[in-house]
Amino acid sequence: MKQGLSLRVSQHLALTPQLQQSIRLLQLSTLEMAQEVEQMLDENPFLERTDEVADREAFGLEQTDAPVSAGEQINDATLAGAEVVALVPEHDGSLPDRVSTPDSTSESTSGDELEGRLDGATPVEESWEGDGTVEMAPDDSEWGGDAPPRNSGSGDDETATAADLARVPVSLQDHLHGQARCLRLSDEDSAALYVLIESLNDDGYLEDSLADLAAAWLRLSKPQASEDTDELREELEQRLTTALHWLQHMDPSGVGARNLGECLRLQIEDMRNSPEARAALAICKQPLELMAKRDVKRLCNLCGIDDETARAALSLIARLEPKPGRRFVDVERNVVVPDVLVTRAGRGFKVQLNAEVMPRLRVHDVYANAMRGNRGGRDGGASGEAGHAAMQQRLQEARWFIKNIQQRFDTILRVSSAIVERQRNFFMHGELAMRPLVLREIADELGLHESTISRVTTAKYMATPFGTYELKYFFGSSLGTETGGNASSTAVRALLKQFIAAEEPAKPLSDNQLSDLLKEQGIECARRTVAKYREALRIAPANLRKSL
Q1: Against a cut of 0.70, is the pTM above it?
Q2: What CA–CA distance (Å, rounded) separates 388 from 509?
Q3: Per-residue model confidence as pLDDT tens digits over 261-306
């Protein structure tokens, strides 16, 4: 075997730590972004939060508000000023966008060319050193000057937000304990009632049996007891049975039930003694499958009631609350904080970022100046130089974190502005005027890749005059029309909701009839497609929508 030397030219794609962080921050939700900021504030001493109002940088949001021409790329302020092409796999197998510097004049790399290099992309060794400077740069100042300072436990009611006021809701247990304190019970009975209240689930149901609760209570109260254990358990179970009677007569009605049938019966028992209520009690004692199927004929035979009374009883049952604890569930976890706000401005719409979700960060001046004063670590020899290099890397990491956060919000604003421009009819007339839109259209307009648009529109929300929607809501496939045009699937779903809302309760529209109505509107939509849209809207089929 003969040995020799050869020269080979190849291209190599690399993901720098800065680009990895930028891509990761872009796909985070608002909550995850806040957690990331808090973690970075704890780990990096050069990063600090500020409440002072500072001027925006020259590359900040003021430029983002300006119109963006098609084909413009995301500007990534790299320290070396050289073009970097990032390659990141996406869930759909597509390639991300090309990231370039503001001063880059190189030709852009096409998606086909990037796809051929997929196997050669490797991450770069973790390094935030950059150009090695420790001088205070203009971009080290605060970003996000429009964001108000956080109220850290402030008791000022004038500055309290709705979310602050909703952070301490009254739970179901607190509501029941308040009623229990009004009862004149012995210590043992109060303890039994306390055990039952604390054993309720979020829906207000008692999932564990009284025997299991009595056994657990006995183990906790007398773990060493060995004699007369059965008698003690029976006594505790009897106290729990008595306490259950008190619990099931508390507000809300139906609380403390062991199953749905008992929950419905408890609510009916609190009503006036009428023929419909008596019939409803009899129906609740029958298998719930008959009630779900609305088998009126069989229910009449089992309960010994006539058809009219059975229908009135089923109508009464339909108005009951199947989950008594629903209104006490902490709804703060369901609160959506929008990233973008869209408001009317004259004949058009104004798109702006939500200042409440924008972190206000800057590089710590004191620490950065100390780094500049001790440049090179000449006071500590080799160990001093190593420590200085480590601190210099942390300083550069803080600078990059601020810039990547800014780039994240700039990209969200650009994409949101393009969406508003494309879906102007929606913001003027509602979801019936939604037009078909795919990720490719926004990607081509902004010069980004579809994977970037996918990251931006995931878990990001926009507050509009018609409500708050995820950015992905404004994208939808198209359906053909008789005129040769296209209709958005979102608009078709809205049209289906209108048809179903206007149907006769006694004769609900089937999926075939809904498909025919859409064809009358000029929209070609098959029955299976109608069924898919109806299920996505969580609308029951025709046989379950039929009114009694």
Answers
A1: no
A2: 74
A3: 889 888 888 887 778 888 888 888 888 888 877 778 888 888 888 8
Mean pLDDT of 133-139: 50
The residue type found at 126 is E
Strand-pair partners of 487: 479
Asked, for residue 9, whether it belongs to a domain, the answer is no
Domain that holds residue 296: 260-327
Alpha-carbon separation of residue 411 from 22, 45, 54, 60 (angstroms): 11, 28, 22, 11
Q: How far apart are CA 50 and CA 144, in angstroms?
A: 10
- 224 Cβ partners below 8 Å, 6+ apart? none
In 331-489, the DSSP E strands lie at 340-345, 348-353, 361-363, 461-464, 467-470, 478-480, 486-488
Q: What phi, psi does 257 have (nearest 5°)?
A: -75, 155
In whole angstroms, give the CA distance from residue 359 to residue 406. Answer: 9
CA angle 497–499–501, rounded 5-degree value: 65
Stated as kind and residue range, the H or E segment containing 444 is: helix 439-446
- Identify whether residues 323 and 344 lie together within a single domain: no
231 lies in the same domain as 314:
no
pLDDT above 70 for 110 = no
Phi and psi dihedrals of 336, rounded to 5? -105, 120
Structure tokens at 462: 């926009």
Distance of CA 477 to the CA centre of its chain: 23
Residue 358 tokens read as: 């924008």
Res 412: pLDDT: 94
Question: Are 381 and 149 within 8 A, CB to CB?
Answer: no
3-state DSSP assignment of residue 123:
strand
Specify whether 122 is located in the same domain as 56: yes
> Contact at 8 Å (CB) between 433 and 422?
no
Residue 464, in any domain of the structure: no
**Which class for 256: exposed (0-12), middle (13-18), buried (19 or more C-beta within 10 A)?**
buried
